[in-house]
Amino acid sequence: MTETSTEIQNKILAFINRYSDTNSTFQSNSDFNEAALTLFNYQFQNNLPFRKYAQSKRKSPLLVKKWEDIPLMPIQGYKQLTLSTTPITKDESVFMSSGTTDPTHRSRNYHPVFNVWDASMKYPFKQYVLPDRSKMTILGLFPSAITNSNSSLSRYVSKAIDYFGDSKSHVFVNENGMDYQGIVSALNEAQTHRYPVMLLGASFSYIHLLDYLKENNLTFKLPKDSRLFDTGGFKGQSRSISPEKLFQTFQDTFNIDRAHYINMYGMTEICSQCYDQNLFDFYHQVPINYTKKAPAWVRIQILDTNTLKPLPNGKPGLIAYYDLSNWNSCLAILTEDMSVQNSTGFRLLGRIQGAEAKGCSIAVDQLLQANQN
Questions:
Q1: Is pLDDT of 240 > 60?
Q2: Are 233 and 206 in contact (CB under 8 A)?
Q3: Host domain of residue 144
Q4: Does residue 228 share a domain with residue 181?
Q5: d(C-alpha 327, C-alpha 65), whole Å
Q6: What's this model's pTM, rounded to 2 decimal places?
Q7: CA–CA separation, 310 vs 353, rounded Å?
Q8: Final residue of a structural domain among 272, 293, 314
Q9: Does residue 327 sit in the same domain as residue 270?
């Protein structure tokens, strides 16, 4: 018997609630495997393009017994196909990628409801971004969900403020652009009255802000426990900057130390995010790691770029992302991001390039061929 969408969501929410406060995936291994196989069965039955692809690889719920063997949906599938286990309604929410690589094919991730998405965002944010407090002043440097309803990051910023922002929290970007004077006023107020703030935005949001501050010869000494949250993302922009140089500029401009600068890994096609764990380590007074950690309802594998076989720790490869909160599309995704993993977590290395993409290209060809009819 295949679960209904409501039953699947309830099972995933129960899993998230059960493991929301743990920093170890080991406690959840058996439960994760059971939940992943249940979700695979649901998606196999209700997501036709995924089922066709799985069948072309001779994978089915009867044959797959481990989460590692669930077929990986190439991320290009979100650009080329409609991946949803529920009928798409006229007013249904959909997150779309920026389309900087190919404007004619933007990834689409459909969300009939947001209960699982919100839960998968809320708990890790508290654990890795606010391990020392329940609320603080959050200065958003990315459009809110009201301004940009088709952006997963916009919802992310809005929910962060809803859940964890105090009364002084605000989004400083709207349809007219960035409110630089408003940001400067908020930073000056925090500096004067000595309360910590969190800057929250995409990498390129910070580039624009840093340009403005440099032009106006403005720097700040933000109070103790202030932090800077960089959600990443230079793809398709007119210029980029190395992470090392970017952090040095952050430090010089805002007086933010390395332990209070964090980055996350997220994208349109997935519903959960992974976080640098340095803030968690700092406030728990343990040796600081700067690798990223996945929540208990996510698993990461690093795959060989040619064979798509798992690699041992220390070997760079493609990220395979298994996310239980992706209940309505595909729980197993083959990304186009390179990473290296060790015993503490994983570190991003950038997008796959050129000849390295052989394994991805073959997977995409197989996906499209399986869905020709």
A1: no
A2: no
A3: 116-293
A4: yes
A5: 19
A6: 0.92
A7: 19
A8: 293
A9: no
